[in-house]
Amino acid sequence: MSSLKQIISCTSDYDPDALPVARANEVIxxxxxxxxxxxxxxxxxxxxxxxxxxxxxxxNVPSHDNSAMDGYAIRNDDLGASEPVTLTEIGTAYxxxxxxxxxxxxxxxxxxxxxxMPRNTDTVIIQETVDVDGKRVSIPAGxxxxxxxRLAGEDLQKGKPALHAGRMLRPADIxxxxxxGIGEVxxxxxxxxxxxxxxxxxxxxxxxxxxxxxxxxxxYTLWGMLTRLGCEAIDLGVVRDDPExxxxxxxxxxxxxxxxxxxxxxxxxxxxxxxxxxxxxxxVVFWKIxxxxxxxxxxxxxxxxxxxxxxxxLPGNPVAVMVTFYHFVRGALLTMMGRSDTDLPLLCVxxxxxxxxxxxxxxxxxxxxxxxxxxxxxxxxxAQGSGILRSMSEANCFVVLGHEQGAVRxxxxxxxxxxxxxx
Length: 423
Ligand code: AMP
Ligand code: MG
Fold this sequence. Notes:
- The chain is of the alpha/beta class.
- It has helices spanning 4-9, 21-31, 171-179, 218-229, 243-256, 268-281, 318-336, 390-394, and strands at 38-42, 55-56, 66-67, 71-74, 85-93, 107-111, 123-126, 131-133, 136-139, 149-150, 161-163, 184-188, 192-198, 202-203, 214-215, 232-239, 259-263, 282-288, 291-292, 296-304, 307-314, 347-351, 362-372, 375-380, 397-401, 413-418.
- The chain has eight helices and 26 strands.
- It has a six-stranded mixed β-sheet with strand order 7-4-6-5-9-8, with no helix packed on it. The protein has a six-stranded mixed β-sheet with strand order 16-13-17-21-20-18, with helices on both faces. A five-stranded mixed beta barrel has the order 22-24-23-25-26.
- A hairpin with a 2-residue loop joins strand 23 and strand 24 (375-380).
- The chain is elongated and about 90 Å long.
């Protein structure tokens, strides 16, 4: 396992006091590794889990050539080049009930969607296009040989990988696994992530607020994000700004979890004692990231009683904690969970209004993506302060203004990341 020091020494333009988002993510991604540990689950229980081993198809899907439409199965050597033909219907094939006879030249079989193609036939004529007179079926010219027939194995081929390891199983995937007749799959074990909030001013829900106190909301947003990501979230509560208490909490987290996510205690005024304590517990770097919101952040590994956990020390401000989670922690945890795909698409849409922005930092403004006059466009949710959690709650996307980007004028195109799908 590479040390943080080694990874950082290979990172170009490394400045811990003005670190671009991409550089910080480079360091984080080189440092984290997937956890080992696999479990076998019934297919439905595996929904949302990460596939640990590729699924190889034991059969062809479909297993036989079959009809894609209701109509008449014919031999393509009966089709005239440009003139209509009339054939004799000799029977019917249903889905699940084969026509077992032989089809000779000049004959056809009525077929339903999903019916196995009768022997010698290879083409299906849609029922709406034919003229039927008793057993006489007249087929107009212009049919394509092989049309409206699904070939055996056209969906999945026997012996070939149907799904690769590293993918999160979605509804289509569990259906696909079922289509192979497989009832159980191997998935990675759940990632255990401990989390706690730090701050003398924090009060847990259920108690009365005194002057200067605030309710601890970060433990709720963090719990929500971790749970939606598919982690086992371990709540270690509120920890006071006291080096001994903090050390105890970090040791506990290292001994029970694969990763620990904390909020608060990494801003300039508070980082000093956290830094000293971290130096005792493991290898942790403190960054000021060129981004807004969410500048300060700690990252590394802490150890206790022979166990270790990857540490993400996030800022305390309620929006900053969510933004840093989505843009640094999410991808890292997905990698640890064994996911091979972690990037999310950015969409380009029209900005309804101007947006202030300075080059030299990445900004994640909170936006509302809406269909206006037939085109998708984005507007901001209002005040963008890093303490205004309402801006996250009202938003359905981040407006991602890149490192080099300057101010945006109304009508310019900007990149957005849709929040559905982030977790
Ligand atoms: P800090 O990063 O600890 O300096 O905190 C920055 C700001 O975020 C302060 O105004 C804190 O009161 C607020 N804050 C810190 N932790 C939380 C939390 N868990 N819930 C709500 N607000 C918090
Ligand atoms: Mg604090």
